[in-house]
Amino acid sequence: MQEKLYDIQEAIRQIAGRPETVLTGKVISVEGETCTVELAGGLQVDQVKLKSAGGDEEGLLIIPQAGSQVTLLSHTGQPDNLTVVRMDKIDKIRLHQGVLDMEIDVTGGKYQIATSGDNLKDILNELISTLNQLKVYTPVGPSGTPLPDTVSRLQAVNTRINNILK
After folding, report:
1. What is d(CA 134, CA 128) in angstroms, rounded to the nearest whole number?
2. Taking 90 as the threshold, does the pLDDT of residue 37 lie above it?
3. CA 69 to CA 39: how far, in whole Å?
4. Distance between CA 89 and CA 1 in Å, rounded?
5. Domain spans, the chain
6. Which residues contact 162 (CB under 8 A, 6 or more apart)?
7. Is the pTM value of this prediction over 0.85?
8. Which of 27, 60, 90, 153 has a 20 to 30 Å separation from 142 between CA atoms?
């Protein structure tokens, strides 16, 4: 079985025409779209890419937590071209595609969703604020502001919104 696996790997290398290098290590720090990883034996490698298409602001970026175990791949076989392809602990997930921006802060437990300059949290907070000042026209003129129990419930909803959205 092991020999067959080696044969398959060798066939893939020949078809691809280049030697892939797979390494494992531990994330020491994260700097933007790269990280510093400590390999077995204590060697530290910096500028390890977190996405294969570096420099492109579009796409998905998964950021590992410092201290997480990662698997690295170099499609050229050279250590100066390493990319994280797997991690055991995620800190954040960011997606930027066209006008859509999303972030999931796994460590902080919050989410952010925005598009074309509008942020979901800001929109919901504005809605709660508007409902807190709601007045209805009646035959005798405009009503007063909502009753205290309604305001209290709206504030509770607003707190829950702020707990999960950035």
Report:
1. 10
2. yes
3. 10
4. 32
5. 20-90, 117-164
6. 121, 125
7. no
8. 153
Those residues whose C-beta lies under 8 Å from the C-beta of residue 22, and which sit 6 or more positions away, are 71, 72, 73
CA dist 72 and 64 (Å) reads 12
Number of Cβ within a 10 Å radius of residue 83: 18
79 close to 45: Cβ distance less than 8 angstroms:
yes
For residue 8, pLDDT beyond 70: no
As given in the structure block, the two tokens for residue 5 are: 């696996």
Domain 20-90 adopts which CATH fold? OB fold (Dihydrolipoamide Acetyltransferase, E2P) (2.40.50)
Tokens matching residue 144: 């007063």
Residue whose structure tokens are 């909502």: 146
For residue 107, which phi and psi values (nearest 5 degrees)?
Answer: -65, -45
